[in-house]
Design a protein that fits this description.
Length: 366
């Protein structure tokens, strides 16, 4: 597939409400989009990087610079998604930037071929169950009101963000209010250390699906030790940046569940490799989210339809984060989202909405 050129586009997307985690609060998304143009089709990719390097070392400005200076110049003029993957191997890190570029090429490739993302990846169903991630709140009553709203909307799983000082009490309150039938899990975003093991063990009483990334992202050994000291299953997120990392974590006993975020691992090809590895070892996986627009959400929903994704992901409806999305919105139906069936991502940005949200564009010919 011949690539004519690539557009880097920054857009500003206000959130419907502030989203607070253990590493900071977001009120808006500064999103980097990649558009690949070929003679036969164009494709879109969304970079998952945040405005600041808080979730990982990547950030939007750095991703744009990496694409501009290193990744796009490394592309061959004729390439499919696998060729892009190979061409970018020499550049260390920058996985979110790589994922955006690979996704855009794959989208163009599949649109030209008339094949959907879901079919290409190996989707086993046409809709996926959806969970919702609930940020840290100012008070427990505020949290309970938020969770009540999401339960009423039909989300089949609730994830609570936690940090030291906001963990046992809010989890207890949610469990007592909504009962044992609500699927409940927590996410620490690496906010604890092994010193907190005894405290984290207090969460065992609440029948949680899992505790996500309790310790530092670069410490599989300590996660393995923590796994022996608590009953709640440990799920790794930030620690897993490749199939090799997943294999090491499984071998060490550092986790029994893996959260797969395509941006974090460098793209959907690597995400599928991690899925296949975990499935072969009987390790459940689920699809994480990074507050994506409809473009990123479409690809994530397709990924979440693979057979090894046995737990509800953070593939929430568009309205969870944005009052107006740049694509036709994803709307929750009976706790599920449909897997787009059209070619490529199955949808595209709505031009007038995209233009209003755009803060800058840059065209890079090949």
């Amino acid at each position: 597939m011949k690539i004519s050129g690539i557009e880097l586009r920054r857009i500003a997307m206000p959130l419907v409400a502030p989203f607070r985690t253990s590493f900071g609060t977001e009120t808006a998304r500064d999103v980097l989009l990649v558009r690949v143009v070929t003679p036969d089709a164009e494709g879109w990719g969304e970079c998952a990087a945040m405005s600041e390097p808080l979730y990982s070392s990547e950030h939007v400005g750095g991703a744009a610079e990496a694409l501009r200076r290193f990744l796009i110049p490394a592309l061959p003029r004729h390439a499919d998604a696998y060729g892009v993957n190979r061409a970018l191997e020499a550049v260390k890190g920058h996985r979110m930037a790589k994922a955006a570029l690979e996704t855009a090429v794959l989208d163009a490739q599949l649109r030209a071929a008339g094949e959907s993302f879901g079919r290409f990846l190996g989707a086993a169903r046409d809709r996926v169950p959806c969970g919702v991630s609930v940020g840290i709140m100012n008070s427990i009553p505020e949290l309970l009101d938020a969770v009540a709203g999401y339960v009423e909307e039909g989300y089949v799983r609730i994830k609570l963000k936690i940090e030291p000082g906001w963990d046992v009490a809010p989890v207890r309150a949610v469990r007592e209010r909504f009962g044992d039938d609500v699927l409940l899990q927590v996410d620490a975003n690496a906010a604890y250390t092994l010193v907190d093991a005894r405290h984290l063990a207090r969460l065992d009483d609440f029948g949680l699906l899992l505790i996500e990334q309790p310790l530092a992202d670069d410490d599989l050994v300590q996660h393995a030790r923590l796994a022996r000291e608590i009953r709640t299953p440990i799920c790794l997120d930030e620690s897993i940046e490749s199939a090799a990392h997943a294999a090491a974590a499984i071998s060490l006993g550092a986790c029994s569940i893996v959260n797969i975020k395509p941006g974090r691992v460098g793209g959907y090809l690597e995400a599928r490799r991690i899925h296949d590895l975990c499935r072969a070892h009987g390790v459940p996986v689920w699809c994480g989210g990074m507050l994506e627009t409809g473009l990123g959400r479409a690809a994530n929903v397709a990924l979440a339809a693979l057979p090894g994704f046995t737990l509800p992901g953070d593939t929430s409806a568009s309205g969870r984060y944005f009052e107006i999305d740049i694509t036709d919105p994803f709307v929750l139906e009976d706790g599920h989202l449909p897997v787009p069936a059209g070619p490529g991502l199955g949808l595209a940005p709505i031009p007038e909405i995209l233009d209003r949200a755009t803060t800058s564009t840059e065209w890079i010919p090949l």
